């Protein structure tokens, strides 16, 4: 795993943390991983800041779940009030889930007018796959080379970024994301991309695998944040539909305003058949959704139905409503767009003349810094070096990408200008320290 | 679906509920179903009682999620405090999830000393299947004829109770549950059961499908609550292990004290390889878990790893800790055992001489009443009639079972003696009204 803690590396840790890690390894075991050469042990958090037991202030430039800020009081109040009133399931008639679904679906273009709620992005991805396979009778799914879509068996089967221990079945076709650093740009990049889509469809056809569709994170987060050329996803969707498949937009990472727009797919002049929502939706309260059209949901609902005990429960829905209130009342989409530009400009200024930095790219408050070696090849060690230098300066980011060489900068949307200034100072210092 | 609302049946409803159902159908669509001929529209809840907007008091004898009571103040306080302090993920070091995992695993026999957290029972079942398939290299899974294990693609594939629109693959073997009404009893019932287990294993072997294991709800809830002969699951587990598979106990329904013991598998002199937990774990806050041994988790963790963004988050863990506090401090396991006996005795007394009631059975506060027709065959219409007669008396239960003819009585564990009295009066009246 990129940026994982390695006990064997012998990092010096406080005795209390060593003991806690020992207990953790005994009771949670090996499937669990910690971040950083020196793990973070937060005890409280507020806005875009986490604090350890000594009161040290860590700037959170990584976590997209607390989109309206850690310990957001409006979310807390909504959850508390609902927990003291009613928390049940969708087989009773309750107002909140209907009101929230109306409010949420109003944020999508026609014909995306219906919502199905679950608890995690993985569950929503899994459900979207079930609906796509049911609607098309197909099995083949097209994804990107280093995609991550979740942890259920079906979601893991389309998540090659989980590594070689997680085999990908031959009904899944992998496409290389457009590479703005090493590949061609503009129309040529799109040609290369669309040729891969056509080849994947042809390969399914040749092997007698009907195409169920394509699912892509609208900003290709785990492929290293691939944003250009604009429209490349829209044209891929047209090819997939012509082959009988559905286009599923995975908005678990870009959704809810991070890119400066409500949904990342808007960049691509694209109306998906299904949209998957998760992480920031309830600011940390588990809630996710699949958004779709009555045409698709009717068929699935009539023959298969769907019930998720905690999915759309009144408490999670109250949190999700408070998130929309905050995003709207504090104009956080416009803020993300404006502050994202400020951060991107600042990152470019700080790395001007530094040949290790191949590119700074971003969409709103989702930014990537691609690190390369002297020959221009992906340099994961350089990226990890910056991540840990920032960690030493109490600034939290991570790295991702096919080459594990792209800094992943993805702060809560309540990140302030002062936070941005601290971040940019820290970044410049980390660059200097690793030169 | 058993006990589903049917708009076409033309039940007379309040205009406001008709309008809300219309909005619900427009925005949530056909995958969603409501309970009852006349849907319930609660606006608040407390203990084992739900209230509608007119203040009518509905006795909850059905919902197992709010195990320590609707709107439990201790759970509310724990959630509120944690939401105002810290809510993050398991890639940072935090104390709560470790302390809770230690407390939870201490409730299991050796070698079940480790926990992996997810958000829903479906996710936990899905993960347990992944671990079992990884550990054994097998694919074949043995389940019961009318099992329900969840809604992810992998969990739905072992959930025949979802109906004919949800096909079951041929790597899944179905066993008929021991039938205390129509089948033989005692040792003969166990012989019939074990012969099926052997046949399933032999069929896998004949078709070249390596056996991954067996997963059974420890009280066979959706097969109609099958409790006897005690030990039949333990001996099945031995056969499955001899065939190279794992035994997975699905404790999503019986777990956390409902049967009067912490776990339903205890009835069967059985130590499972993996245990799946869910529903009541956080009293409605989404949290679930897979419990297992380091031997199994090490192998899976080393090669596959597992991360669930919301899984084991500090807020859900705080709720889960408060649930254990309540179960222990209020002695709710002993209460479930005592009140369950009182209810079972009362149900038997009320139905004495009524030939429609073939059997009253139960384990703690999980009770079933099996309804049959004049020829002794399963009578789903009789069961549904009682369900709706109880609903008219503001008492909530449902029906389940292979024949959809077993009343499912599964109240919050804070059900009081007064609640039990009201329930038994209502049951007697419903029997009279449907005679």
TrEMBL record, chains A, B:
Which GO molecular-function terms appear in the entry?
Answer: transaminase activity
What keywords tag this UniProt record? Aminotransferase, Pyridoxal phosphate, Transferase
- Extract the InterPro entries matched here: Aminotrans_3, Aminotrans_3_PPA_site, PyrdxlP-dep_Trfase, PyrdxlP-dep_Trfase_major, PyrdxlP-dep_Trfase_small
One of its Pfam families is: Aminotran_3
Return the similarity comment: Belongs to the class-III pyridoxal-phosphate-dependent aminotransferase family.
> What protein name is recorded for this chain?
Aspartate aminotransferase family protein
